[in-house]
């Protein structure tokens, strides 16, 4: 079993440097995948209410715990508050659904998924929630926003920490000025910032800012276009796949590792945590071992940084359809 390094968060908790991303992990295989990943040594599972598979993730976790492979406290379970549930009256409701589905008493880290509050829709009406704000809006191809300041949402999440339902709080898809504003009013400091980050979007200024505030950066979609090809994203089709890029291939060859390990290590060598998603055993192990597989030289790090194009594949303005935002 692989043994992963951890980062110590600003509240003293330990977060594995490599975890498993659970977006697009289909419900029919999620339980087995999570169970198998725990067997291989994964301890962090990055989930979210809107991924629609928390029940199945919970089944995998339960099986591993029941068989004595791990204890609950060995795991670092992550979830995210979806955009329909930003109003303080709905924050706990969303978390309760997550906890019920996972079959757990608490999550280790609870993020605000996007700083994008949209109109409340009960989970009984729409699960997984997605960018849905009611039938009429859907017919008109719009999404209605909700007038809730981020700090109001965050303060409701702080209460979840007080109640022991959540161990720590995080922000996802936030830019620096919004983080700065939130920090002015936060009673409990966020421990982590999860953002899209890969060699085509190196996020140098944001990473420097978060690290200066002792907020752990977690990279998502580290393989860049790969995750978005299957969603038909045109920008993803127009660029060289990172795992086939000459610069990455040459470095991989030199170190006798895979191109995916080069990319993941480029992130972890910057003090960033990674959560690559995979369903294949060989890739799961390969990704988990990436942190130890190689050390990149300064010039290799610079060569990978040189690929930056500030190219973002997951931009809410592309799909949020909020009236008046264009
Ligand atoms: P990713 O960069 O992890 O890429 C996933 C793709 O890479 C899959 O097609 C997989 O088969 C392939 N892959 C994985 N390991 C490989 C390997 N070793 N060799 C070759 N191919 C490999 O993309 P992602 O799933 O978008 O991001 C990872 C996780 O980040 C998600 O599962 C989710 O948990 C999280 N995420 C969060 C947000 C957010 O808004 N906070 C958004 C997107 C993703």
TrEMBL record:
Natural source organism: Eremothecium cymbalariae (strain CBS 270.75 / DBVPG 7215 / KCTC 17166 / NRRL Y-17582) (Yeast)
Keyword terms, alphabetized: Oxidoreductase
Cross-referenced InterPro entries: AKR (IPR020471), Aldo/ket_reductase_CS (IPR018170), NAD(P)_OxRdtase_dom_sf (IPR036812), NADP_OxRdtase_dom (IPR023210)
Family (UniProt): Belongs to the aldo/keto reductase family.
Residues the UniProt record annotates as site (Lowers pKa of active site Tyr): 80
GO process annotations (BP): arabinose catabolic process; cellular response to osmotic stress; cellular response to oxidative stress; D-xylose catabolic process; galactose catabolic process
Any one Gene Ontology molecular-function term assigned to this protein's record: mRNA binding
Taxonomic lineage from the root: Eukaryota, Fungi, Dikarya, Ascomycota, Saccharomycotina
UniProt domain NADP-dependent oxidoreductase: residue ranges: 20-308
Positions of substrate binding: 113
Full protein name: NADP-dependent oxidoreductase domain-containing protein
Entry annotation: catalytic residues: 51 (proton donor)
Gene3D superfamilies cross-referenced by the UniProt entry: NADP-dependent oxidoreductase domain
A Pfam family matched in the record: Aldo_ket_red
């Amino acid at each position: 079993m692989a043994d992963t390094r951890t980062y110590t968060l600003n509240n003293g908790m330990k977060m594995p440097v490599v975890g498993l991303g659970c977006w697009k992990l289909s419900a029919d295989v999620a339980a087995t995948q999570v169970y198998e990943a725990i067997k291989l040594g994964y301890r962090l599972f990055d989930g979210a209410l809107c991924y629609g598979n928390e029940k199945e993730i919970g089944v995998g976790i339960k099986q591993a715990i029941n068989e004595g492979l791990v204890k609950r406290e060995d795991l670092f379970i992550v979830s995210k508050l979806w955009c329909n549930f930003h109003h303080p009256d709905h924050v706990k409701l969303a978390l309760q659904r997550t906890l019920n589905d996972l079959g757990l008493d608490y999550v280790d880290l609870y993020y605000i998924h996007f700083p994008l509050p949209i109109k409340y829709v009960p989970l009984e009406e729409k699960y997984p929630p997605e960018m849905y704000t009611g039938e009429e809006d859907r017919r008109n191809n719009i999404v209605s926003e909700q007038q809730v300041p981020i700090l109001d949402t965050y303060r409701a999440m702080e209460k979840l920490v007080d109640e022991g339902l959540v161990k720590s709080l995080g922000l996802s898809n936030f830019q620096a000025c919004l983080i700065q504003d939130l920090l002015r009013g936060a009673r409990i400091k966020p421990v982590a910032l999860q953002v899209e980050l890969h060699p085509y979007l190196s996020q140098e200024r944001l990473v420097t800012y978060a690290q200066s505030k002792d907020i752990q950066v977690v990279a998502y979609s580290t393989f860049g276009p790969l995750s978005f090809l299957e969603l038909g994203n045109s920008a993803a089709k127009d660029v060289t796949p990172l795992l086939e890029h000459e610069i990455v291939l040459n470095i991989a060859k030199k170190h006798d590792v895979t191109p995916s390990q080069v990319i993941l290590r480029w992130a972890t060598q910057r003090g960033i945590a990674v959560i690559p998603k995979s369903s294949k055993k060989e890739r799961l192990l390969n990704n988990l071992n990436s942190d130890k597989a190689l050390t990149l030289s300064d010039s290799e790090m610079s060569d990978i940084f040189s690929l930056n194009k500030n190219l973002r594949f997951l931009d809410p303005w592309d799909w949020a359809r909020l009236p008046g935002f264009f």
